[in-house]
Amino acid sequence: MPTFEPQSYYQNYVDGQFVDGGADRIVVDNPGTGAPLAEQASANAADIDAAVAAARRCHESGVLSAMRPVERGRMVRAIGDYLLANIDDIAQLLTLEAGKPLWESVVEIEGAARYFEYYGNQAETLEGRSIPLGKDYYDFTTYEPRGVSAQIIPWNYPLEMTARGMAAALATGNTVVIKSPELDPLTHLYIARAAEAAGFPPGAVNILCGVGSEAGAALSAHPDIDQVVFTGSVPTGVAIATAAAQNVVPCVLELGGKSAAIVCADADLDNLIDSVRWGIYFNAGQVCSAMSRLIVHESIAGEVRERIVALAESLSVGPGIDRPEFGANMGAMISKGQRDRAAGMVARAREAGADIATGGVAPDEAGFFLAPTVIAGVTRDMEIARSEVFGPVLSMLTYKEESEAIAIANDSDYGLVGGVFTRDIDGAMRVAQRIRTGQVFVNEWYAGGVETPFGGYKKSGYGREKGREALMNYVQTKNIGIRIG
Ligand code: NAD
Fold it and tell me: Per residue in 124-165, pLDDT tens?
């Protein structure tokens, strides 16, 4: 792989132009070293106004909405093709700004490209209904794009989260204004270039970085947007939903979780360990659907603990750029603030009486690292069992009866995903029916894909991303009734 040199400064992309921002530039750090990496233009409210106006003009021109869907779909797919054609450079930049191992950056870019492929393919499949009203009428429904889609993106998967909303919005004929995350916005340059290369006209895709309380707040409260898509924390989600309510525009909120896997006494433990590796240590646990709680039958708790501690201790932790190959390794967390927050939660769990089986400490390195952590002896009242860590920290709880395991799993403000590991399909289905989450994994954490709907119950948010369900976020149903003479 050729060595990649980042630019010293990255601009925003508005109305088909790369532009500076009206706010002070943001310094983006390299989480693997703790050192500054590059500067990023930062938008103020006036820049957001300009982007929304450009998106509105493009939408009103009809250039996307009037196009035959198959053509639009091909353009959406071409964005993904561009990302794959430039994957070496993008992966290195993503690793340098987000801290993840190079192979994980490749996985993320392939995942982003997959969204453009999937929703590009869906573009021509959205069809209305004909509704029988007797011999005197013809009645049918059509789907129209909402218009300007505002999308506010988190830092944990900057490219993939952008691809998820952007691909579905463009495929259904909307224009987009994207607020990229201030901690790792740099790879968005390639999304802008990809949209241009795919033939999207000025204003169809606008990408601006900026501080959440300024640029994010201005975008979500803008009176000329038609819907908001947000992934991030609960307090920010509440602020965004409140702003959207003032303008009476819908939102899709995906707000994280405290997701639990129930491990039954008959579970295949090799299979479980593989899921734990991906479930809590992929992306250093900075995943909204991370397997952050393990609810283990007491008869196997000792063996499970031993095996997971061995897994955690087998992972080599260090700068992502030195970890090109899939394997037993993990990168940095996104920032010192997020690392210290997670380490603080582990320390408080110890004070509350939990047993730190391994990890919990920051390795003696310059970057923002936290050792893969396993906490045993967790009880459901502890902060560590209730609050999202958003780091490589697994909490182990135990149970005796199936109903107790389900009660523990559901004892959460969140309800994003859940899982069960067992060889008993009847037991798995009983658990799946009773777990209050938007997705249930049986015998493989993250079973599913771009095709399967994703979203939460309770404070994990509302609306569904991914799959065909997500197309409905971006369209309005119009009913046309015809009286015939
Ligand atoms: P955040 O919710 O504050 O930020 C997410 C995005 O929202 C960023 O682009 C940010 O600029 C923007 N934003 C912030 N304040 C805003 C406002 N008032 N109006 C509009 N947009 C605003 O999350 P964070 O501070 O980056 O991380 C804090 C916690 O959030 C994490 O510890 C984690 O628990 C959670 N989180 C969850 C996810 C997820 O995938 N569900 C992703 C990132 C963070």
Answer: 999 999 999 999 999 999 999 999 999 999 999 999 999 999
Residue 429 has pLDDT above 70, yes or no: yes
| Angstrom distance (rounded) from CA 116 to CA 342 | 34
Examine residue 168 and state whether it is found in any structural domain, yes or no: yes
| Residue 456 contacts residue 414 (beta carbons within 8 Å) | yes
CA dist., res. 484 & res. 41, Å (int): 58
Cβ proximity of 28 and 186 under 8 Å: yes
**What CATH number does residue 93 fall under?**
3.40.605.10
Q: What is the pLDDT of residue 372?
A: 98
Residue 454: inside a domain, yes or no? no
Ramachandran region, residue 482 (left: φ > 0; alpha: ψ -120 to 50; beta: rest): beta
What residues does ligand 1 touch, defined as CB less than 6 Å away?
152-156, 179, 181-182, 212-213, 216-217, 220, 231-233, 236, 239-240, 254-256, 288, 338, 388, 390
Q: Which domain holds residue 192?
A: 9-255+462-479
Note if the pTM is more than 0.70: yes
Neighbours of 481 (CB within 10 A): 10
Distances (CA, A) of 119 to 86, 142, 148, 230, 262: 20, 19, 18, 19, 33
Distance CA 312, CA 280 (A): 10
In this prediction, residue 485 carries a pLDDT of 87
Q: How much distance in Å is there from the Cα of 229 to the middle of ligand 1? A: 12
Of the residues 117, 254, 402, 465, which is catalytic? 254
| Residue 461 CA: distances (Å) to CA of 98, 230, 232, 251, 473 | 25, 10, 10, 10, 14
